[in-house]
Amino acid sequence: MTKHHDTLRTGLLAAALGAIALPGLAQAEEVRFATPPWPGATVKTEVASQLLERLGYATSVKEASTAIILEGLVGGDIDVDMALWRPSQGGMLDPRLESGELVEVVHNIQGARFKLAVPGHVWDAGVRSMADLAEHADRFDHSLYGIEPGNVGNEIMQDAIDDDAYGLSDWRVVASSVTGMLSQLEANNDGERWTAFLGWEPHWMNVVYDVHYLEDPEGLWGDASSVSTVASAAFVERAPNVAAFLEQMVVPIEVQNAWVHAFSREERPLEAVAGDWLDANPERVGEWLEGVSAADGATPALEAYMDAYLADR
After folding, report:
1. Which of 146-155, 164-173, 188-197 is least confident?
2. pLDDT band at 301, cuts 50/70/90?
3. What's the fold here for domain 112-213?
4. Residue 213: CB atoms within 10 Å
5. 150 contact partners, CB below 8 Å, separation of at least 6
6. What single-letter DSSP state applies at residue 151?
7. What are the residue ranges spanned by the domains of the chain?
8. Residue 310, pLDDT score
9. What is the Cα–Cα distance from 43 to 35, expressed in whole angstroms?
10. Running DSSP on this structure, what letter comes out for residue 129?
11. H helices within 189-264, ranges in order?
């Protein structure tokens, strides 16, 4: 994070915190979220959306690729995205932060991971690092399993092959989809066959499978991952109360793993996953709403939230 960006973020969020008690139309306008089609991002956005609606805000959620979302944020068609990954998407995000068009509100998940992984039986056999892969190339069928074509994770793996990093020049990236990749992992999870695949956390794969993330001595995957909430600078200025809430909405990684498991693995309805979790976790919700008001600019947010909760019973 640059000094310029840090100063901008601090100034805008300080303004937000100083203005949250002020009533006005700006605070009651629709909050326009966008999210890439990833289960964790989808549920997290739905939780934020439902919570804001209980405070009296209107919300909408658009699904799109990260590139389209960033253009929408800059163009004024989208207000908030809660799924910007660092460092893998930093190259797309940082120029827009530098220009002052966008604000990185908060790292909403700490300890996230996005890198090459193997199942437990492969880890137990001694494959602990990307440097161990080439020695066992035949067991892996010289293949690294990725997700949709064009994904940055696939590109990192392909770059490793092109550059002969870790002796992988004769390997290939198998691009598929999240579902396709995990189906391959499931098929090869019998202890006999070996799979190296693109893994990330939070995701239900970390709940269902024994996932281990490979060491990367050459730093191909960058520093430790985090996930950011990003908003347009114009939105932060005109909706400081919402910005204050978003700054406080930090999600424990085990919570988002559970969200993704319920939504993607158990295939529970999105609205129910988010709503049931909110109802069952008033203490966490209270932390997120501390010092925030409802959309009317006067009622304490937690009071309005509980009134809405009781009205639904």
Report:
1. 188-197
2. very high
3. D-Maltodextrin-Binding Protein; domain 2 (3.40.190)
4. 18
5. none
6. -
7. 3-110+224-312, 112-213
8. 86
9. 10
10. B
11. 205-208, 233-238, 240-248, 253-260
Range 63-86 burial, b when 16+ CB lie within 10 A, else e: ebebeebbebbbeeebbbbbbbbb
**Token digits for 11?**
């100034």
Question: What is the pLDDT, as a whole number, of residue 189?
Answer: 74
Instruction: Return the SS3 of 253.
Output: helix
Mean pLDDT of 164-191: 90
Q: What are phi and psi of 127, to 5 degrees?
A: -85, 100
Cis before residue 87, ω within 30 degrees of 0? yes
> Tokens at residue 169, please?
């020049």
pLDDT digits (tens, 9 = 90+) for 203-240: 889 888 999 999 999 999 987 788 999 999 999 999 99
Asked whether the predicted pLDDT for residue 285 surpasses 70, the reply is yes
pTM of the shown model: 0.75
pLDDT average, residue stretch 50-72 = 96
Two domains, one topology: 3-110+224-312 and 112-213: yes
Helix (H) or strand (E) holding 17: helix 3-19
Percent of the chain having pLDDT more than 70? 91
Task: Locate 5 and state its tokens.
Answer: 């960006």
Angle at alpha carbon of residue 62, lines to 59 and 63, rounded to 5°? 145
Nearest alpha-carbon partner for 101 in 244, 5, 13 = 5
- Cβ neighbours of 10 (radius 10 Å): 11
Mean pLDDT of 69-85: 97
Q: Pick the residue with more confidence: 40 or 172? A: 172
Residue partners of 169: CB distance under 8 A and separation at least 6: 161, 162
Q: 284 φ, ψ to 5°?
A: -65, -40
CATH top-level class for 3-110+224-312? alpha beta
Nearest C-alpha neighbor of 79 from the set 56, 54, 62, 99: 62
What pLDDT is recorded for position 110?
A: 73
Dihedral sign (CA 217, 220, 222, 225): negative
Q: Which residue has the tokens 């295939």?
A: 267
